[in-house]
Automatic annotation (TrEMBL):
Positions annotated to bind heme: C401
Sorted UniProt keywords: Heme, Iron, Metal-binding, Monooxygenase, Oxidoreductase
InterPro entries in UniProt: Cyt_P450, Cyt_P450_CS, Cyt_P450_E_grp-I, Cyt_P450_sf, Cytochrome_P450_monoxygenase
Similarity comment: family membership: Belongs to the cytochrome P450 family.
Pfam families listed in its UniProt record: p450
Requisite cofactors: heme
Annotated Gene3D superfamilies: Cytochrome P450
GO MF annotation: an example: monooxygenase activity
Domain of life (superkingdom): Bacteria
Descriptive protein name: Cytochrome P450 family protein
Amino acid sequence: MALIHPPAHKIHPRPLPKWRWLPQFFINPLSIYSEQAFESLYARSEAFGIDTLSINDPAGIKHVLLDNMANYERPVVLARLFRPAMGRGVFLAEGTEWRRQRRMLAPLFSPAAINDLIPHFQTAGEQMLSRLGQGGNVRLSEVFHRAALDAVLKALFSLKAEGHHADIPVMVRQYLGGAGRPNPLDGMARTEDDFGWAQASRKAFSRKWTAMVDGVIAERRTAGGDQAHARGDLLDLLLSARDPQTGEGLTDAEIRDQCSTMLAAGFETTSRMLFWASYLLSLDTAEQDRLRAEIAAFTPDRVTRMEDLAHWPRLRNTLLEALRFYPPAAYVTRRAMGADVIDGHQISAGTEIWISPFVLHRHRKFWDQPTAFMPDRFAGVNAPWTTMEGYLPFGAGPRICIGASFAMVEGQILLAHLLSRFTVTATDNQPVLPVFRVTTVPDRDPLFRLTQALPAA
Ligand code: HEM
């Protein structure tokens, strides 16, 4: 059986000279790589006066994200891009403040809490199907954006993504395609507030986003909790959280920033994973048929606990393979706060560390046939994002994505709903290539044809 190799950017025979890669980097960093990037373990470069070490070596990655993590913080550019949507929530917090926030949020993402969320993911899946009706030609990126928003609003805030909430994906898409794109001034900035005059559109987004999140919280406070949340939702948890030392609760601003963070981190990434998985399945229709048979044998309405997802191993492996090819978070970056040495590479305060799941996931040292779509490579591997060398879709170490299981469970339930009803085919044979815009998005927004699937034989 011939393997399918999804379309990919040209790999340059040699590293591009700086005058070529720097402008190209701002157009699409995923298109600048040379053969060497997929073979080497370390690469040193410099841009805008910032010394940068790119690491593919698992030992070096572990050093930065775990063993000596206290020496590495999120770089300025991340704060410039994410602060407007995430405020002072856990994603951008550092040190003791980060530890406090992470501890406080952990119960919301425990396996027991995720089991409680399953009915919400199912409702989001059913609503997605009812919006799709008989199918036809659709933009799956919009379908999944809406469904993933629905899932996160239900799961975290006990709310429906109806009426004005439907504007949220539009706001996010506009931000990622406009003000939220990194630019050369971000490269030159040494503090979050440098070139403040050029940040007007980010501040405008921040005002709009904050007002929207305030509205969501106010609405949820009025509507009250949801009986389906045995453990309470995110807002209940934040409202009742107390600092064990002082007994103080969180301020309204802290509550809002945490909600903003979960909303921003929680639905864009997951909907991209679903888009790319569907794209891969439109290229490999035989695998798509196998998934449909797997889902027909255990229909989505039968899932009540995470363990039930074991009935869909191929579906899980397809999502994992989509995360390998197109990791929504294509870069995990850090800035050194003090001197260090990583496998002989000298690090000084200010050195930036770039770890690219996009590069790692196609690296020739870690993968057999890295350019081929082979979901079976994950067969039988439990939580490969913590156990497989070179596989880092959710980051690593104590700051690993808090929502990894949330995303995987939600992703399987939403995609199972779609495939249980429809066959997904491309409407054209033009390639779709990944572009990095804070998350990994398609270079164009293709239409897919959804046709009613025949019952599995
Ligand atoms: C496929 C979906 C997702 C992907 C690929 C993804 C990826 C990541 C990655 C790579 C990181 C680590 C960043 C770093 O170390 O610099 C991260 C952190 C984070 N993610 Fe996710 N994520 C996903 C879904 C979610 C969901 C559903 C939520 C919440 C509902 C979430 C909330 C967060 C938060 C709060 C952090 C910061 C954790 C900390 O700093 O302690 N993510 N995510």
